[in-house]
Amino acid sequence: MSDATPKRATNDADGASQILVPEGTFTMGSDRETVQALWNEMGWDQGWFDRQVGGKHWIGELHEHEVEISAFWMYEEPVTIGQYYAFMVDTGREAPVDHDVHGPWNSAWRDGAPVPGSDRLPVSSVSWDDACAYCAWAGGRLPTEAEWEYAARGPEGFVFPWGNAWIEDICRCANEIAGRHFTDNDEWKEWLNGGGSRNEDGSYDKSCWLSEHIAQLEGPRPARDYPSDLSWCGVSGMAGLVREWCNGWYDPNYYPESPSKNPQGPENPPKHPCRAMRGGAWLCAAYQCRGAQRLFYSPDTRNTNDHGIRCVIDV
Fold this sequence. Notes:
- By secondary structure, this protein is an alpha+beta fold.
- The chain has one domain (8-314): paralog of FGE (formylglycine-generating enzyme), CATH 3.90.1580.10.
- Helices cover 25% and strands 14% of the residues.
- It is built from ten helices and twelve strands.
- It has helices spanning 32-42, 46-53, 56-59, 81-91, 99-102, 128-137, 145-153, 174-178, 185-192, 207-214; strands spanning 8-10, 17-21, 24-28, 65-69, 72-75, 109-110, 113-114, 243-249, 275-278, 295-297, 307-308, 312-314.
- The strands form four sheets. A four-stranded antiparallel beta sheet has the order 1-2-5-12, with no helix packed on it.
- The chain starts with 7 loop residues before the first strand and ends with a strand.
């Protein structure tokens, strides 16, 4: 984090604390050599690297380019369930999910309202339209991919929000929940899909792991529980907790043609229209918590509790 004290303000619409992200320039994206060096340093499996770097999430990331960003306000923490419920009450919008309909992935919502004790958790299982509607109600908007990455990595281009070295238990992610350092993708997937237990048909048996970990109250946690998951400008929870919707379409080929100042993302939807998403989440292994990682979801995706909302407001 920068030595300068972050400039804060409170959004009157929902009481959220906002951080002023100053204007600046940074290198957006990654290059293969830098990622390989990180892989070696972390002791991650080389086969995992070869599969991942050639995979769909990496193709769009591996193009470094200089980007200039104007100043903006960003929520210090992800939008909480309590804030989202106030928006629902004020606008008549329905709850995004319900435990009795959608199962234990969504146990923070029952009968159209949050369960007691969940107010401070990051809201999740919201669609892109839900996220846009909330931000508009609060007087803001979703961040661009460039704004999000700049707030996470800063002028020095840190690998993780807090710096270039991974620190165990610093954020709410799979490593912290499982109490182990995942070095192989298969190892992480086995943990994620039921600890390796399989059904007779070969599929993963998720029942034991679900009952133990996946309930919303054991997935995301309040951002303030992880005070060191803090970026250079003072924004919290960008490596763990929940992934966050961004404003633009996701196009893996966008970086080479991106404007150098305040890029907004593709003007038109790609062949398979998905919206961009950024950040790590409670179910992510360490490599997925990097600030440069690009993600995407169908904009109508709701029934999964690993993605949420962080608003920005123009200066």
